[in-house]
Amino acid sequence: MEHGVATTILCVVAGGIAAQVLAARLRIPAIVLLLALGFLVGPVLGLLHPTRDFGPNLRPLIGLAVAIVVFEGGLALDFRELRASGEGVLRLTAFALPINFVLGTLAAHLIGGMMWGPASVFGAILVVTGPTVILPLLRHARLERRSAAFLRWEAIVNDPVGAILTAVVIEILVGVPHGAGEDQATALMLHLAEGVVVAGALGVGSAFLVAWAFRRDLVAETLKTPVLLALALVAYVMPNLLMNEAGLIGATVFGIALANRHVPGLAELRRFKEALVVLLVSCLFVVLTADLDLALLGKLSVPILGLTASILFIVRPAAIWLATMRSDLSRRERLFVGWIGPRGIVAAAVAGLAGPRLSEAGYAGGDLIQPTVFAVIVATVLAHGFSLGPLARRLGLSTAADTQRLAVVGASPWASDLVIALHRAGVPVVIIDIYPGAMLAAREAGVPTLQAELLSRSAEEGMADHPPDHLLAATRDELYNALVCTRLAPEIGRERVYQLAPSENHLLHEDTGVSRDVRGKVFGDAEASFDALAGRHEAGWRFVVTGQDAVERPNDVHLIAIKADGSLTFVSVDHEANEVAEGDRSLILQAPDLATIDAVERPGQVPA
Questions:
Q1: How far apart are the first and last CA of the chain?
Q2: pLDDT beyond 50 at 438
Q3: Cα–Cα distance for residue pair 106/350, rounded to 1 Å
């Protein structure tokens, strides 16, 4: 038995992560492959039986994993975003949720043929949109900040509220005696208020406790992440002792409150938890899909399929349209948010608990809730996951096309010349400096600029509208360049942050030089320091973007390859040179007059 459970866990973890890696390579939503994998190893091949393998421990384990997921989602909600999103977040949470519930219940009864009891539970479950699906999609999409904030806040806030709503509906259907009077209704409301208040207080209290302890250095660095995870589970389990699913509110509130306390060092801890959540989400989707009963899936009739279609094309768009009437949302934003609403792990987990409980209480059709919810999950993930990017671009809500964006820090004359050349070649680029006068030439050429200290909160907010795919730290200060690369490497990617070569070449020595852990990749040749590039620029060298058919001159210094698909490849001593493919262009540093140069110079040397 022990070996069977260990083998099951190994297969779930390995298969889930393999699906994540493959989805990243194929640039498709990972949940698509996770659902396919779970369906294959579960209902189709019968290799995985989570309920049989884990027994009664399955649901509590799923609940604990979901608690960590919603806690990490709460950490992504910064109240500063509300300034950009206006009243839209309130409309999507407070107004759209009840409308979604009513319309979803009506659709389940009138179109899906469910009795009113199961129909109301189905409607309650589907008021949520899944942060486990939305957040990964937003990381890969290039939505402008306001639209991204709408989807992020709606997904994370509505998840626990939808779970609570489902628990209340089930309590009314199952727990309250038929024909109960006003006393029973009052008791139920007090029970609900008790659970919500305790969950909220526990979440906020935990956040203040963490902020107080961390700022006073009362917790060792190695213990900070375990402390956060333990408190997130406490904030989930304790309210659940009072009311089913109230713990989701506690975990979410803990994450939101902690995110807005702005505790130093929280960004590093958040990145670890993001990786943990990827692992948990991968396992959860595989397990929940594998737990589906193939016999029940066979009962998905034409009315159920019609119900799924109505959720996509009628219920969600109508609810958002009604909730955002006379709001500050534009017509394009209302259309976009009305279409994008994929369901995720919370809907799947709650459906797995609600269906069996209704069936045990004697409600006909209760066993159809779980497969029907999964049908909606699959349909919304496929439809919304693959259409989010194209629809955002079509409506003008995307910050850029598929071309990769480069951020250059430091607006020296030669750096301005570099970004202007890339801008004229159609490469999205932004230049960042604290002095507005330094960026005047780039601004006059139409290059986007950002006046800010890159490591400040204002720069973080400014770059949120145009997140870069690559970074080049090109200031004269070598230590500052290394600091910038080290700070942004976890967000952009360690292989995508570059800095100028240090003036002392021995700092790049493999054994005695500066470790790659605390610096970016070297941009160009090891001798291409700030002074060397500035000297060449003063001597008349210029940055030029050439096509593949351009005649290569002996003194041309190749720096960046612009691929046909819009991706960028940098020349660096820290990796092997990539071959130039058909259709590629190159950013080169070109000498002013070859006749005056006697010999081919090394890329870092300044001509006399």
A1: 78
A2: yes
A3: 20
